[in-house]
């Protein structure tokens, strides 16, 4: 399906990508202890006796973490395994207090699922690809080593040790950087909708291990490499491109790709080998004997299902069908849970103040949000949740437009002032007299002036140059300070000119 | 009045309640006994203040006319595998030498809450790995028992709860905690002529107990007789939300329901427990035990546990596998020993610390465990051992259709001399041959003293029960105790 190809000396190569995404579960406490998980705390201030692996300490599962993993699986349409089990992955490292990580290798909590991603932003229905989910398992995060605090020592911060992660493993279904990026963005969108992960990649709440291999189209999978801890959608796309090109170059130069772990250096735009084969770990997985198997009952699963919100795809369809939005607008508004929430608040408030129906108000609301507000926020370098204009204030502005108080250009003007002053639209209109006028007498008087001032254009128009109609509209509007009702201006101009 | 240290848990409890003697007198008497018994090396740390504080509290409560707690003023010994707040807890290892937990294990906390006091932390095989108490970093525990006929060779008190068994047999503590992974309560009880019960897996919380093999470890009491075991167990057991393998069940009134009447009970005799080479005295004691339970009204049935012979090999795969992982946390990073050679990197530090901090037997089991879990061997060893474990559990389930309890010897020999088996780990492991199957199945099992061998050393009988049937096990133990009339005790040479 994908036409993405690496041009090599021996011909075209296809890239095969699979992602293992680690998503930190949104919960107040760690996976197996009661310690807090808040971001940004002082080092080692959120470490329980269990997290520090003191002798005799035992893990007990945090039900909220289990619930969030199940809800995420359900949102991905995946099989939820009623029976799952925790395994130990054994290795020594200073950031791993127990000497093992509790994970789920043999019996993960979530089985196969899939998500569909749009590959063309402008036309979301044009190119849609379904990408398989292999599994989701839950596991503990490790701590963090700090090497920059002392000239000869490294320090250990165990605040993250024991924090619950969902490892969401895709099938090797992606064939281009765009597909990998779109998949990760969609996954992030879904976990944010579900509320199981905040998706903040810059804080490390979500990160991806990128598995890349190359092959001649139609041939068997090649040997893959795994680039660890990539922390943005853009970087994932870069890794796919860079690593695929590197592999092609190696193979075409007569070399072989070795299965290895690599890391991405965004400054240099390259991936580098992290571990050699000699250090290859034998993790000695086995079932954790401190924990009983996890057995989920129907009541728990039903409650998880019932707690799921409307998900992005369903929301998009509803926006198109019930609200009459374009596919593009619906996709933009539903891509992010916060945006959709903002839009729905704006629409509900508009309906309340304007007294009109959803379907009448949805399109202008969507257009205003996407072009005016997003444009303004972009310029201000702010995100939607930092918007100086609230949904209520936005609805007030839209209502003034809907009832004819403000024309489009006037509304833009009022919005500018709202951004600057933080005042409400009605107040601005009132104070600055920015109301639209449909007073035919006043408009006719201005039109007469415009005709008088532009005899040449009038003559040309009458001589057949009809394109000059717009010129007269513009001149009239300008002379009216933008306050004239454009429909009335059109109407009256036609009468005068014809 | 006779010496209070000749009394058991029930008698001390009742005497303190009745005012026959004060708790303080009891504590002082045992503290003196403990301090004079250094030759046994049963304690790693002595805590007279703890025992005396509990005694003072009990006496004050009695003086105030309050209802006394179940173990008010009763002093006991605590196996040094239980973490005790502010008191050094070592698991008899160098790697944890000097470690003072900031927390108290659930089991020890329950005992303190019940009014008991602690005389000290009892020696054991390092990380509970051993059957003779010769693997402690703090030196061997020496059994108070000696062979008759002028043979003064120091004897093993059994293991791993050898400090507990030696101290009880020597009357320097009236009772103690033990832990049993493959027989570590029952075999030392048998070696020293005392009683000990390993309850159903999950009855006692493992929280705060230094882990050996998590799926097998279970705390239990050791004491002079069955009733004392029942009393202690009642105050150790109970659901603990901090241990996810803990059983969410109420604690039965085992003491109140004790009865040596076995009428209506069927007791199974598993033919597989009659091994070639078992000393005739042990076979004879077993036969005697059968007569005793018959006398108590039980019906005897011959039963078969066909997978018994695979239990020991399976155990010595599963337990080391879990241990190799459980002991990974002792890495020199956060607590305990750290050996940092000049110019060492992190890996070197781990290696040096663990080389210096673990004893030979612990290292042997870590190596075995690492090997059986490693890639390429996992299925051949670990998976296979787990299958065997399932088959062994099924063997027991099958016999419960025809009997209520099983009666077997506890150990294949009487106590052996220290040093006798240290050179041969396999011979040492064979000591657990009768205790390991019920551990793998998580069943309650108890050892009670039955008699003496020709050298005058104690021999024990084991009763194995259905899951959660501690009452049945204790009752059969009582029936044997009543008929065995075991009153032998070691001469005080220490």
Can you describe what's shown?
The complex is a heterodimer of chains A (498) and B (494). In chain A, 40% of the residues lie in helices and 18% in strands. By secondary structure, chain A is an alpha+beta fold. By secondary structure, chain B is α/β, with parallel strands linked by helices. Chain B is globular. Chain B starts with 8 loop residues before the first helix and ends in a 10-residue tail after the last helix. Chain A binds chain B through residues 49, 52-61, 88, 90, 92-94, 97-100, 156, 282, 284-286, 289-292, and chain B through 82-83, 89, 91, 96, 99, 101-103, 105, 206-211, 213-215, 241-245, 321-322, 324-325, 327-329, 331, 333-335, 346-347, 350, 370, 373-375, 378, 382.
Task: Please summarize what this structure is.
The complex is a heterodimer of chains A (498) and B (494). Chain A has helices spanning 63-75, 177-194, 233-252, 298-306, 312-321, 327-334, 337-354, 358-380, 391-402, 408-421, 425-432, 440-453, 455-462, 469-479, 486-497; strands at residues 6-8, 11-24, 83-84, 87-90, 100-103, 113-118, 128-140, 144-146, 155-157, 164-170, 206-215, 225-230, 261-265, 270-273, 286-287, 294-295. Chain A has 498 residues and is of the alpha+beta class.
Q: How many strands appear in the DSSP assignment of chain A?
A: 16
| Overall 3D form of chain B | globular
Low-confidence stretches of chain A: none
Arithmetic mean of pLDDT of chain B: 97
SSE blueprint:
The complex is a heterodimer of chains A (498) and B (494).
Chain A (H helix, E strand, L loop, with lengths): L5 E3 L2 E14 L38 H13 L7 E2 L2 E4 L9 E4 L9 E6 L9 E13 L3 E3 L8 E3 L6 E7 L6 H18 L11 E10 L9 E6 L2 H20 L8 E5 L4 E4 L12 E2 L6 E2 L2 H9 L5 H10 L5 H8 L2 H18 L3 H23 L10 H12 L5 H14 L3 H8 L7 H14 L1 H8 L6 H11 L6 H12 L1
Parallel strand pairs in A: 12-13
Antiparallel strand pairs in A: 1-2, 2-10, 2-11, 3-16, 4-5, 4-15, 6-7, 7-10, 8-9, 11-12, 13-14
Helix pairs in contact in A: 1-4, 2-3, 5-6, 7-8, 7-9, 9-10, 12-14, 12-15, 14-15
Chain B lengths: L8 H10 L4 H14 L6 E4 L1 H16 L11 E5 L26 H8 L3 E6 L39 H8 L5 E6 L5 H7 L2 E4 L19 E6 L2 H9 L31 E5 L9 H16 L3 E5 L7 H16 L19 H12 L2 H14 L4 H22 L5 E5 L15 H5 L6 H5 L4 E8 L5 E8 L4 H15 L10
Parallel strand pairs in B: 2-3, 7-8, 7-9
Antiparallel strand pairs in B: 1-3, 4-6, 5-6, 5-10, 9-11, 10-11
Helix pairs in contact in B: 2-3, 5-6, 7-15, 9-11, 9-12
């Amino acid at each position: 399906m994908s036409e993405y190809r690496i041009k090599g000396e021996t011909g075209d190569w296809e890239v095969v990508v699979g992602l293992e995404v680690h998503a930190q579960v949104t919960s107040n406490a760690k996976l197996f202890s009661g310690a807090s998980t808040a971001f940004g705390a002082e080092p080692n201030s959120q470490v329980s006796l269990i997290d520090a692996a003191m002798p005799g300490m035992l893990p007990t599962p945090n039900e909220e973490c289990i619930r969030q993993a199940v809800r995420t699986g359900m949102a991905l349409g995946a099989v939820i395994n009623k029976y799952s089990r925790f395994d130990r992955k054994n290795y020594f490292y200073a950031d791993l207090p127990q000497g093992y990580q509790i994970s789920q290798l043999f019996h993960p909590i979530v089985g196969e699922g899939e998500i569909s991603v749009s590959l063309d932003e402008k036309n979301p229905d044009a190119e849609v690809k379904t990408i398989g989910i292999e599994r989701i398992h839950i596991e503990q995060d490790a701590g963090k080593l700090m090497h920059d605090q002392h000239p000869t020592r490294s320090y250990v911060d165990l605040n993250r040790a024991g924090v619950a992660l969902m490892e969401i493993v895709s099938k090797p279904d992606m064939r281009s950087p765009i597909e990998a990026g779109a998949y990760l963005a969609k996954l992030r969108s879904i976990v944010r909708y579900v509320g199981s992960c905040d998706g903040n990649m810059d804080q490390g709440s979500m990160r991806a291990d990128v598995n890349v291999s190359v092959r001649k189209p139609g041939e068997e999978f090649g040997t893959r490499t795994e680039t660890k801890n990539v922390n943005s959608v853009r970087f994932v796309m870069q890794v796919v491109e860079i690593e695929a090109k590197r592999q092609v170059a190696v193979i075409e130069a007569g070399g072989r790709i070795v299965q290895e772990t690599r890391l991405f250096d965004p400054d240099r735009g390259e991936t580098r080998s992290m571990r050699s084969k000699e250090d290859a770990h034998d993790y000695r997985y086995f079932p954790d004997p401190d924990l009983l198997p996890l057995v989920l009952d129907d009541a728990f699963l039903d409650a998880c299902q019932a707690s799921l919100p409307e998900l992005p795809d369903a929301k998009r369809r509803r926006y198109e069908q019930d609200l009459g939005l374009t596919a593009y607008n619906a996709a933009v508004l539903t891509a992010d849970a916060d945006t959709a929430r903002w839009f729905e608040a704006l629409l509900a408030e508009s309906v309340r103040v304007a007294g009109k129906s959803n379907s009448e108000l949805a399109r202008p609301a969507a257009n205003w949000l996407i072009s005016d507000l997003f444009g303004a926020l972009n310029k201000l370098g702010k995100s939607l949740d930092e918007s100086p204009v609230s949904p209520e204030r936005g609805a007030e502005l839209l209502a003034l437009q809907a009832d004819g108080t403000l024309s489009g250009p006037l509304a833009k003007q009022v919005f500018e002032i709202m951004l600057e002053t933080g005042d409400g639209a009605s107040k601005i209109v009132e104070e600055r007299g920015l109301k639209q006028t449909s007073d035919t007498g006043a408009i006719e008087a201005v039109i007469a002036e415009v005709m008088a001032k532009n005899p040449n254009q009038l003559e040309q128009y009458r001589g057949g140059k009809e394109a000059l109609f717009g010129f007269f509209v513009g001149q009239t509007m300008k002379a009216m300070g933008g306050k004239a009702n454009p429909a009335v201006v059109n109407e009256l101009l036609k009468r005068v000119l014809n | 009045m006779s010496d209070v240290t000749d009394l058991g848990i029930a008698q001390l409890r009742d005497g303190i309640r009745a005012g026959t003697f004060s708790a303080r007198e009891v504590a002082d008497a045992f503290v003196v006994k403990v301090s004079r018994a250094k030759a046994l090396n049963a304690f790693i740390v002595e805590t007279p203040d703890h025992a005396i504080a509990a005694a003072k509290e009990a006496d004050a409560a009695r003086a105030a006319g309050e209802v006394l707690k179940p173990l008010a003023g009763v002093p006991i010994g605590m196996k040094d595998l239980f973490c005790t707040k502010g008191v050094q807890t070592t698991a008899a290892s160098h790697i944890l030498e000097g470690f003072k937990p900031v927390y108290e294990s659930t089991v020890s906390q329950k005992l303190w809450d019940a009014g008991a006091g602690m005389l000290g932390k009892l020696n054991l095989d390092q990380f509970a790995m051993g059957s003779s108490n010769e693997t402690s970093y703090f030196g061997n525990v020496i059994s108070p028992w000696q062979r008759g006929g002028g043979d003064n060779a120091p004897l093993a008190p059994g293991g791993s709860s050898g400090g507990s068994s030696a101290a009880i047999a020597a009357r320097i503590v009236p009772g103690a905690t033990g832990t049993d992974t493959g027989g570590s309560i029952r075999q030392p009880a048998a070696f020293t002529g005392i009683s000990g019960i390993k309850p159903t897996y999950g009855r006692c919380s493992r929280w705060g107990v230094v882990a050996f093999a998590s799926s097998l470890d279970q705390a239990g009491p050791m004491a002079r007789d069955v009733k004392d075991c029942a009393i202690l167990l009642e105050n150790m057991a109970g659901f603990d939300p901090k241990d996810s393998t803990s059983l969410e069940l109420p604690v039965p009134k085992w003491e109140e329901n004790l009865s040596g009447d076995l009428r209506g009970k069927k007791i199974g005799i598993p033919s597989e427990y009659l091994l070639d080479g078992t000393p005739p005295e042990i076979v004879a004691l077993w036969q005697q035990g059968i007569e005793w339970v018959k006398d108590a009204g039980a019906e005897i049935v011959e039963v078969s546990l066909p997978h018994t012979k695979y239990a020991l090999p399976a155990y010595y795969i599963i337990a080391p596998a879990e241990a190799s992982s459980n002991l990974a946390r002792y890495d020199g990073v956060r607590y305990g020993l750290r050996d940092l050679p000049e110019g060492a990197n992190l890996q070197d530090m781990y290696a040096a610390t663990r080389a210096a901090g673990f004893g030979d037997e612990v290292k042997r089991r870590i190596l075995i465990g690492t090997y059986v879990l490693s890639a390429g061997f996992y299925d051949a060893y670990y998976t296979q051992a787990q299958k065997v474990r399932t088959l062994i559990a099924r063997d027991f389930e099958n016999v419960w259709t025809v009997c209520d309890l099983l009666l077997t010897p506890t150990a294949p020999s009487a106590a052996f001399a220290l040093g006798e088996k240290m050179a041969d780990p396999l011979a040492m492991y064979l000591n657990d041959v009768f205790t390991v199957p019920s551990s793998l199945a998580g069943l309650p099992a108890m050892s009670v003293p039955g008699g003496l061998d020709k050298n005058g050393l104690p021999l024990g009988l084991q009763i194995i029960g259905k899951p959660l049937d501690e009452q049945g096990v204790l009752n059969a133990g009582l029936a044997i105790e009543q008929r065995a009339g075991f009153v032998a005790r070691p001469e005080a040479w220490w």
